[in-house]
Amino acid sequence: MKYKRGKIAKIIEVSSFEMVDFYEACPYIFEGELLKTRKQEVVIWRNIGMVWNWMSGKCLQDAGKDFGRDHSTVIHAIKQVLTTYEGYGYQEIKENIELIKEKSRCHIKPVEDINVNELKNLVLLENRISKLLKLAQI
User: Fold this and answer.
1) Residue 120 in domain
2) Is residue 61 part of a domain?
3) Using the 8-state DSSP alphabet, how is residue 106 labeled?
């Protein structure tokens, strides 16, 4: 089955998929051991991340590689998201996507101005550093 980005964008009701929106809402940083874990909460976020990554324009292989997975896992994640929006599957997927959408509305969208894009990257970096510091305290 060939998946169309437009169909998924229409179902999820998002016009622009940016990884910065995902990372801002996600409570995890997918590095080291989190790439391998099978804990359901982490797996759900990882699957959303792979779908979001693919929707942002990457091919299936690259979208999975960023999360330590292959293209078939991305296809499985896409199926999970579609199933959830059809009324079946994990409701946590829908709740997490709604959280990403909510946080992205408070977010600066990319523009031609380089200074604004640099500011956006600094905000993302600051969020990642704060998450790492919180994980280090645990």
Assistant:
1) no
2) yes
3) T
What does the chain come to in residues?
138
How far, in whole angstroms, is CA 55 from its chain's centroid? 9
pLDDT in tens, 74-102: 999 999 999 999 989 899 999 999 999 88
Question: Are the C-beta atoms of residues 52 and 78 closer than 8 Å to each other?
Answer: no
CA-to-CA dists, residue 74 to 13, 44, 78, 79, angstroms: 20, 12, 6, 9
Six-digit token string for 58: 């990457």
Q: What is the pTM of this model?
A: 0.74
Residue 117's pLDDT band, with cuts at 50, 70 and 90, is: low
Determine contact, residues 66/51, Cβ cutoff 8 Å: no
> CA-to-CA distance for 106 and 59, rounded, in angstroms?
28
Is 134 within the bounds of a domain? no
Using CA atoms, how far residue 75 sits from 6, 57, 89, 93, 138, in Å, is: 15, 15, 15, 15, 34
When divided into structural domains, the chain yields a total of 1
Q: Which amino acid is at 40?
A: Q
